[in-house]
Amino acid sequence: MQQPQNTDPFVFGDTFLYSCCKQVRRNGSATLLRKLQRGDVILFGSRLDGRFVLDTVFVVARSEIFETNRGVELLTGRVPAEFVETVLRPLARASRLEPRGAEADLRGCGPEEWAPEDEEYAACAAACAPVGTQYRLYWGATPDDPVDGMFSFAPAQLAEHAPAGFRRPAIDAHFINANLRGFKTCLEDEDENSSHQIVKAAWEKVVSQVIQQNHLLGFQFALPEWERDHA
Fold first, then answer.
1. Lower CB count within 10 Å: N or C terminus of the chain?
2. What are the DSSP E strand ranges found in the chain?
3. DSSP classification of residue 167
4. Residue 170 CA to its chain's centroid (Å)
5. What distances in angstroms separate CA 164 from CA 54, 132, 157, 158, 160, one per listed residue?
6. Nearest-CA neighbor of 136 among 31, 19, 230?
7. Helices and strands per DSSP (H, E), number in the chain
8. C-alpha span between 27 and 15 (Å, rounded)
């Protein structure tokens, strides 16, 4: 049976979920990404051919802090079962609450093995997060329940138009740094009203560029089929 593969954000089901990536520094302290508020926007993507290409736009609707060793207990029934199995349970195992037995599974636990992640940030679901490490689970805004008109989406195309997949849209804007390996914020020293206006304008700019590149705004992706182990 294949090991579960985490994806952050988790875009399947009725609501996008963002759970752990780059929320905690190697020294255990929280980054800005564990302190986001309703209406904040995250652009997930990567650098390709010198440009920022977009994977997902995540608009925060609400959130809740959870501990690695209590995530399964706290959130089962409130998130898809697939999310429990691919994200919450592996996080619990990573904190060594559920020993995995094989010695090979324990490799990567020394400080020298932490992924650099921009020289400062711990890898998502780090192999040695201590028991009780706190992350914040974010629920994304949806078209049916947006935040000031904003909602989470991933660039998409119809399968009949892109049977072999498609190129991710490149986004050009003053708040994008294609060379950045970690993350940055585009708001500094702004009052609340001004910040809100800037965030919405940024979201609208991204939406416009995605549509101009012949992509759809995808949401409510079907949950992947998975094999439940009843043994």
1. C
2. 17-18, 41-48, 51-67, 134-140, 154-156, 216-218
3. P
4. 19
5. 18, 43, 11, 11, 9
6. 19
7. 4, 6
8. 31
